[in-house]
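Exercise: predict the structure of this protein bound to acetylphosphate.
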Amino acid sequence: MGPVKVLTVNPGSGSLRLHVVRTEDEHVLDAVEIGKPADEADGEIESFVDRVGELDAVAHRLVHGGRDLDSPTVVTPAVRTRIADVRSLAPEHIPHTEAMLDKLTERLPGLPHVVCPDTAFHRGLPEVARTYPLPEAWRARWDLRRYGFHGLSYQWASRRAAELLERPAGDLNLLIAHLSGGCSVSAVARGRTVDTSMGFTPLEGTMMTKRSGAVDPGMLLWLLREGHLTVGELEDGLYHRSGLLGLSGTSDDTRELVRQARDGDVAARFALAVFEHRARRELAAVAASLDSVDALVFTGDIGWDQPEIAEAVAGGLGVLGISGGLDAGRDRDAVISDPAASIPVLTVRSREELSLAHAAETIA
Ligand SMILES: Nc1ncnc2c1ncn2[C@@H]1O[C@H](COP(=O)(O)OP(=O)(O)O)[C@@H](O)[C@H]1O
Ligand SMILES: CC(=O)OP(=O)(O)O
Ligand SMILES: [Mg+2]
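Solution:
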């Protein structure tokens, strides 16, 4: 068989990223980022697929695999049913994946379509970390447990960290912060997740650009019980109008907020301060599951392109022996801490498309 060419499909909550990857040298042959959801992007998708030529497989990011889909899987009607079953667990993501599966299985019917769950990387999450202290009957009936997300990103970041530190991944204890539209942190010990901040859905954990992250469940019950908000209003507020956007009142984009804060905007500075505080708090929480910390890795759009945030997060983690004074340059994956730092800090550009392409190559 010649070089393998994989079309990768990454429907984020607010955008759609398509790549064509040649797996043997991890070369991206073509790419497009479409700033709108799959069901509004027919024209752009069609013209991209038209121009990329022959393909060997299509790899679709599936944010939530639920209980049954815990590794990359070739799509069949039975798999489509399982995806539909978990739709409401990731309402921001799964409908877009389903729309892309409908479109591309029809447009490219001769190819294997592989769904790659974001939850797969965390499937070995220790029982103490994945269990919610809820009634046994509820857990048994509805499978209430923590899954963890952004696994494709963590997989890539762990590999790159090992390469940059010139140590085998199987020897490393890593703290990784994936900061992007959705944000989460993980502790990865010798290649396996031992704790992570997202849980049953991609709403738990650290503060995000538009999502709240963890808030007191008692407060949510109160809002509903007293009739202050309907379930629909609560869901819309927690997913779309919270996080950086909710606190700043102006933007969900750290590039904009850092500029505004520099110009003296108090609300922008405060939104960033809470974001940084919550990222540090979640990192310190998952660090408790590691014996030691060999490195802190920043990835995701914000982790990669916003050095001010990496600086504030790392600089405030002295309790873990981590320090700031990081290099603000971002032209390649690198160790960005001082060579004398006791715990190296790294930045790795998120490459979910490469994790997707390799997964499809392995099983298609
Ligand atoms: N520093 C940043 N760089 C890039 N995107 C950012 C940054 N800060 C906030 N964002 C927001 O993150 C969004 C990307 O979110 P999304 O489409 O869900 O992708 P991801 O899969 O990376 O989370 C962008 O639309 C942008 O508004
Ligand atoms: C899981 C998740 O939050 O994904 P994204 O960051 O793509 O929205
Ligand atoms: Mg994403």
